[in-house]
Design brief:
The protein is mainly α and 680 residues long.
Length: 680
């Protein structure tokens, strides 16, 4: 016999099994019953069971320290301190390197006011694990809280012999300062800086910040001579090989607080002469601030400018095509330099022409020319040199490959400011002849409009439209110009010529502008004709709705029948449309119209035309042709389409017959129900 290996009809997943287990709470154990201990025998029995449980857990795995700690804390909760000590000692025999174990042991002794035991434990801990700083902190804190200052100092001294980290020294110093022992704190600082052992100088923390902290400690306690001596020792200690700007900044600020301004200048100059420029930024910044407060303004400004100029020179020397560095350099030079120097830097900057003739490489470079021309015009007041700059730039640009319209327009605007209109027109005309661009045409037309030269504007628009006949915005602006000038026939002819173009970038905007133009002129018949011509090109639902709204707002007596007729035509035309959402949009607009202006009969009719929204499923395919599952989507069934399809009508009648059959079978199987219902 062969077993049936086909999959079962109902598949059970692992997720379903877990969900059912969660819902039925199969894994939840009932809580243990609460026990009430009433006499000593029950208490002793309870203790015996618990101790046996703890001992079994320890026996299973002696290295799990949490079991030992729980055991000891349980004994401590019963006030069995001696037993808890025994447990901790056994645990330390297992793992004496466990920091938590030592801490819990000592905290138990302190909590139960066993001070000598706690001292013994801390002493054993710091002897066994001297590099664990937490033991030292806890030990010294306990002694200080007990008022044993000498004992706490003795612990600190033992700690310092191990040469700990920086925070430990600061803790010792702060401890002495809390008890006003300034001399002791000074001696600790000395050891903190230089630790002497066996008559040999051993460096413990030779960092600059430690010397600065020592000096600030002396300054805080008004020992200014000692503070100056510390700074001098630090400068001598580090020498010229390991100079650090932070030390000299702190030294200078100390002398500044003491009003020793000459000493401050000597310190800053000494450091600036010996520390490399790239490592002395903070030093120079503080020197500048000091000179601004107490020195000569002109001198410090010269220092700043010369330093920044040196930096920019290094940058542009490293990369001559770094135009951002040139911009910063020129901004610095323009702020406080004579015109000849500025022109020299500009000439050096514009000499670095991009090596590749691609526009993206020239976008930053062209602003060097623009800034140069603006400087000559606005700052130097040299109009002749400004014209030469613009002309040199325009000659340099490869106009056959690309151009910059802003450069032509800026040159033309400059000539207008110089009241030289022919040169401005010549420049813009040359630009349109060499490298026509939309921006150039727009700028030239805007100039002539401001000058009220409408004939020139017409000629420019004609040239513009010959260059870019697909630009709908240009057609619209041209027609609007003729409308403003009152030449309606020319405007209409422009619109007609525009819509006859084979290629347009935004035809919908152009048609809307033409229709709005005819509506503004109150030419309703021409507007209707325009809508009909547009509908011959596209059957978009928005065009039909716009036509209906136009008929409604036309203000004539037959506006409602005309509007309803438009909706009727649109509904018939949209029946063959594949996008059912557009047809639904049309019917929604029609219903809104009937709700406001229609009768009950027309409202009932439009309600019958509204579709039924149903949910369907369709199969999806991946890019490689494999099945990607199913997706749900909404479809619309229109009553008009259903009436024209006999198969759908037959299917509906079959569903109705099946429903009647099911009702008759149910009545035959339960006749008593019918009798009861008839009696009631």
């Amino acid at each position: 016999q062969v077993k049936n290996k086909a999959p079962a009809e109902v598949q059970i997943t692992a997720e379903q099994l877990l969900r059912e287990a969660k819902e039925r709470e199969l894994e939840l154990l009932p809580p243990p019953p609460q026990q009430k201990i009433t006499d000593v025998e029950e208490l002793n029995d309870y203790k015996l069971r618990k101790r046996k449980t703890f001992e079994d857990n320890i026996r299973k795995n002696r290295t799990v320290i949490s079991n030992w700690i729980k055991y000891a804390q349980w004994e401590e909760s019963l006030k069995e301190i001696q037993r808890a000590r025994s447990i901790y000692e056994r645990a330390l025999d297992v793992d004496y390197r466990n920091v938590t174990l030592w801490l819990k042991y000592a905290e138990m002794e302190m909590k139960n006011r066993q001070v000598n035991h706690a001292r013994n434990i801390w002493d054993r801990a710091i002897t066994t694990l001297p590099r664990v700083n937490q033991f030292w902190y806890k030990y010294t804190y306990m002694e200080e809280m007990l008022g044993n200052v000498a004992g706490s100092r003795q612990v600190f001294e033992r700690w310092m012999e191990w040469q700990p980290e920086e925070q430990a020294w600061h803790s010792y110093i702060n401890f002495e300062l809390r008890y006003k022992e300034v001399d002791r704190a000074r001696s600790i600082y000395e050891r903190y800086i230089l630790f002497r052992a066996l008559a040999v100088l051993v460096l413990v923390h030779p960092d600059v910040k430690n010397w600065i902290k020592y000096a600030r400690f002396e300054e805080k306690h008004s020992y200014f001579a000692h503070a100056r001596k510390v700074y001098e020792r630090a400068v001598e200690f580090f020498g010229e090989e390991h100079m650090d700007e932070h030390l000299y900044v702190a030294f200078a600020k100390f002398e500044e607080n003491q009003k020793e301004f000459e000493r401050v200048r000597v310190i800053y100059k000494y450091a600036l002469d010996r520390i490399p420029k790239q490592d002395a930024q903070n030093l120079f910044k503080n020197y500048t601030i000091f000179e601004k407060k107490f020195g000569d303004r002109r001198g410090i400004e010269d220092i700043i400018v010369s330093k920044r100029r040196f930096q920019y020179e290094e940058e542009v020397k490293a990369n001559p095509h770094n135009y951002d560095a040139w911009f910063d350099y020129l901004r610095l030079v323009e702020s406080d330099t004579d015109a000849e120097t500025v022109r020299e830097v500009y000439e050096r900057a514009i000499a670095n022409v991009p090596p590749i003739q691609e526009k993206r490489h020239w976008k930053r470079y062209i602003y060097l020319w623009i800034n140069y021309a603006l400087y000559e015009e606005l700052e130097a007041k040299a109009s002749k040199r400004t014209r030469q700059v613009y002309q040199a730039c325009l000659e340099l640009l490869p106009h056959k490959k690309f151009t910059f319209a802003k450069m032509w327009l800026l040159y033309a605007q400059f000539e207008i400011r110089q009241k030289n209109l022919p040169l401005a027109r010549r420049a813009l005309g040359t630009s349109i002849g060499k490298c026509p661009k939309n921006k150039l045409f727009k700028g030239y037309i805007e100039l002539e409009l401001q000058l009220r030269e409408f004939d020139r504007c017409r000629k420019l628009y004609e040239k513009f439209l010959e260059f870019a006949p697909e630009n709908c915005t240009s057609w619209i602006k041209f027609a609007e110009l003729e409308t403003i000038l009152g030449d309606i026939d020319r405007a209409r002819a422009i619109y007609e010529l525009a819509i006859s173009q084979p290629r347009l970038d935004m035809p919908e905007v152009l048609w809307k502008s033409y229709i709005d133009f005819e509506i503004e002129q109150e030419e309703y018949e021409k507007t209707r004709s325009l809508y009909r011509r547009l509908l011959q090109r596209t059957q978009h639902v928005k065009v039909w709705i716009s036509l209906a709204q136009f008929e409604l707002s036309a203000g004539q007596e037959e506006r409602l029948p005309r509007c309803r007729q438009v909706y009727e035509e649109a509904n018939k035309a949209m029946r063959s449309c594949e996008e059912k959402e557009e047809r639904v949009m049309l019917l929604e607009s029609w219903r809104s119209f009937e709700d406001e202006f229609g009768t009950d009969a027309t409202k009932e009719r439009i309600d019958k035309l509204m579709p039924e929204k149903i949910k369907k499923r369709r199969k999806l395919q991946a890019e490689d042709g494999s099945d990607a599952g199913w997706e749900e989507y909404y479809d619309y069934i229109f009553p008009e389409d259903t009436a024209n399809q006999p198969n759908l009508k037959l299917l509906a009648m079959a569903k109705l017959w099946k429903k009647q059959q099911q009702e008759s079978e149910a009545a035959a199987m339960d006749p008593d129900k019918d009798v009861d219902e008839s009696q009631t």
